[in-house]
Amino acid sequence: MPLIIICGIPSSGKTTRAKQITQYFLNRFSSQEKIGNVHLINDESLGITKDSYKDTRVEEKKARASLISAVERLVSKEDVVIADGMNYIKGYRYQLYCIARAIYCGTPIEIAREWNFNRGEEGYEATIFDELVSRFEEPDDRNRWDSPLFTVLYDDPVPSYDGIWDAIIVKKAKPPNLST
Ligand code: ADP
Ligand code: MG
User: 32 C-alpha vs ligand 2 centroid, how far in Å?
Assistant: First the structure.
């Protein structure tokens, strides 16, 4: 049932974290504690290219709609769904909030810009990067749809994801931020 929403500016490490968390859940599921499936949804699996973020916002709207429908299709009682995308619009996160737990890749813009540059062809074009950064609405756990919110800081190579497990599988009270 739980849906984990990754959010953050372009090249802030979302896909990297999404893969770590997927692996973390697979390990814990297979080490007897509970049995469940993990579904990772991202632009690649939905066939969304970085050009979708380019000129019009029509393509982007389609991209958001296809993420929502994939989520609706995959969310079930037993399974964990991880939505790896920018998820930068407050209203969009609100749409998903009742089933969501958000992971925020807290990476400073200058660091993400550098990571993006290092990606070369794989990265976002500089103008798209700036545009997306300016549109990103930072999550705030005082908003109920952004809560609980787990922030992973850019300089923590492999944070403990136990807090996420506790919050969504064991259903313990909201843990503190992972990187603090
Ligand atoms: P996003 O999905 O947010 O666009 P990625 O996870 O694809 O970001 O990471 C963007 C780039 O930054 C990749 O080249 C990745 O290898 C690099 N990167 C990601 N996390 C870190 C990190 N913690 N330290 C250094 N480089 C990183
Ligand atoms: Mg990515």
Answer: 30
* ipTM of the complex model: 0.97
The candidate with the shortest Cα–Cα distance to 60, out of 31, 87, 21, is 87
76-125 confidence digits (pLDDT tens): 777 889 989 877 777 777 777 655 556 789 899 999 999 999 999 999 99
Cis status of the peptide bond prior to 2, with omega within 30 of 0: no
CATH code of the region 3-170: 3.40.50.300
| pTM for the predicted model, two decimal places | 0.74
Q: Which residue has the tokens 């994801």?
A: 161
Q: Which residues line ligand 1 (CB under 6 A)?
A: 8, 10-16, 115, 118-119, 154, 157
